[in-house]
Amino acid sequence: MHDDPVLFGITTCDTVRKARKWLESLGIGFTYHDFRKDGLSEATLISWVQAVGWEALLNRAGTTFRKLPEPEKQVTTEAEAVSLMLAHPTLIKRPVLVREGSVALGFKPELYEKLFS
Fold this sequence. Notes:
The chain is α+β, with helices and mostly antiparallel strands. It has a single domain (6-116), classed as Glutaredoxin, CATH 3.40.30. It has helices at 14-25, 42-52, 54-57, 63-67, 70-73, 78-87, 109-116; strands at residues 6-9, 31-34, 96-99, 102-105.
């Protein structure tokens, strides 16, 4: 018996909504964790960084990143990235899907089809 996958994101994110809808449409059980509302532990974030790399996890294209003061945008180390993402969880690329120990970033139907086939 495997635990249900956990989908991490924020409720207002369109990509998170698409992922939730896709999972629900196929009757795939999952737990949803809104990291803006429910928080995010440093240990969880570090496990994602170890799985996919901080460069992939840090969303430099989003509004939150663009609004940061210029010195904060100069992220060059994992420690700086983790600190920044803990301070501003909306900087995390979304959604993050954790299933059976693996971590998937973003949502594309073909990616999820491979994960659940």
